[in-house]
Every structure is written in C-alpha cells, then in structure tokens.
C-alpha cells in the first residue's frame, strides 16, 4: 500500500510515517499543502493522511483537488478540532474518513488499512491463495497452516501480489506500491526481495516469474 502523509508538525509526520512503514506500507511525507499537490500529481497513492490546517495550501483545497481529479485515492483527514461540525464539513468536502488529534496510532493504522481496501475491488480482510494466508491487520502470513516470518518489504510485496488475484504485477508496479519515492528506480531491490520472499515461502514455489512482464501468484 502506498501512503502520503501530509502534516506540518514534522515530528508527528515523521513519527506517523515511521510507524506505517513498520506496518509494511510505502510512505512518502510532505509538510505543506503545496508539496502535497505536487506529489499527488506525480505518484499514485492508495491513501492520503491529510492534516486539515496546512500552510501554503489548506488541507481542504488538497482534498478538493483529489476529488476533482477523480482519483481512487482515499483521504483520511486529521484535525486538532474535535467538533462534530468540523468533521461533517471535512466529509462533505470529500474526505473518506476523519480522525481528531490526539489519536491512537493503532486506530490510525486500522483506518488507513480500511481505506486502502476501498481503492480497489472489495477483497476480504484476510487474503488466501495457493495455500498462502495473509492477514494485513495482524501482519501474519501462513503457508499450509505454518506461520512464516517476513520483513516489512517482503510482506508488502506479498500483499500486492495476493491482492492482484493471479494477475501479473510488473517490477515497476511493485516498486511503486511497496517502496517510497526515495528508492532508486534502477535498483534491483524488487528482484532481490522477490527471491528472498520465494525462498521463505518454501517449496513448491508459489511466486511465478513471467519473463518480460513481472510476477504473479
């Protein structure tokens, strides 16, 4: 899942990004509305965690732009105000969910995951395919009932492949969904991660390489 965190309180923004990365999400961070509009125009995000009171361009205007573009991106709006009227206004602007500050990180994560599931065709919370069972919320993976320990990026790649439901996923798509914008697009990190993931999942192999196209399960 690819997430953009937009928050002018840099310590909070960086803390949220770090926490979401530990949950196997690819996260970019910006600290004002103008930078958010720039990123949204370049990258495809599943979810934008958007502070409402932003410098340069207000969070409301960022949200309106996402709606105007007709993007599948979901918006989780944050605000220091807990007033019901503010929450209603944010939802009317086009936000998909609303979370007042201060918030529990576990709730933020759950809401981001729930919104991420709504960017594509609805899939069950627990994904199962070819003997693999993946639970994004619990960060658990099992093969034929045996738990498998995966690093965050390995988990992220597996989740993208599982959500594709048998369709081929290119290396470029995996790079876009599982890594942030600071990753060198010419790196072999996707190939190496897939190799490690394939080894950890065991025999017989469930990740198929489609020459010249990508990977599928």
Automatic annotation (TrEMBL):
Keywords: DNA-binding, Phosphoprotein. Pfam families: Response_reg (PF00072), Trans_reg_C (PF00486). InterPro entries: CheY-like_superfamily, OmpR/PhoB-type_DNA-bd, Sig_transdc_resp-reg_receiver, WalR-like, WH-like_DNA-bd_sf. Residues 124-217 form the OmpR/PhoB-type domain. Residues 124-217 bind DNA. The modification 4-aspartylphosphate is found at residue 51. SMART domains: REC (SM00448), Trans_reg_C (SM00862). Residues 2-116 form the Response regulatory domain. The keyword DNA-binding applies. Coiled coil: none annotated. It comes from the Bacteria. This is Response regulator transcription factor. It comes from Streptomyces enissocaesilis.
């Amino acid at each position: 899942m690819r997430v953009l965190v937009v928050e002018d309180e840099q310590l909070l923004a960086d803390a949220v990004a770090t926490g979401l990365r530990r949950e196997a999400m690819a996260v970019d961070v910006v600290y004002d509305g103008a930078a958010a509009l720039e990123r949204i125009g370049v990258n495809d995000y599943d979810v934008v965690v958007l502070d409402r009171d932003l410098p340069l361009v207000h969070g409301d205007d960022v949200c309106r732009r996402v709606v105007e573009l007709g993007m599948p991106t979901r918006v989780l709006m944050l605000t220091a105000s807990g007033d019901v009227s503010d929450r209603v206004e944010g939802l009317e602007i086009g936000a998909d969910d609303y979370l007042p500050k201060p918030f529990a990180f576990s709730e933020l994560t759950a809401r981001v995951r729930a919104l991420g599931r709504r960017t594509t065709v609805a899939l069950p919370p627990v994904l199962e395919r070819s003997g693999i069972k993946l639970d994004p919320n619990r960060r658990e993976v099992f093969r034929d009932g045996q738990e498998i320990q995966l690093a965050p990026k390995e988990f992220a790649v597996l989740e993208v492949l599982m959500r594709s439901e048998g369709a081929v996923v290119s290396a470029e798509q995996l790079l876009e969904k599982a890594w942030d914008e600071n990753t060198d697009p010419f790196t072999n990190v996707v190939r190496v991660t897939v190799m490690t993931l394939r080894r950890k999942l065991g025999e017989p192999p469930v990740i198929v390489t489609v020459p010249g196209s990508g990977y599928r399960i």
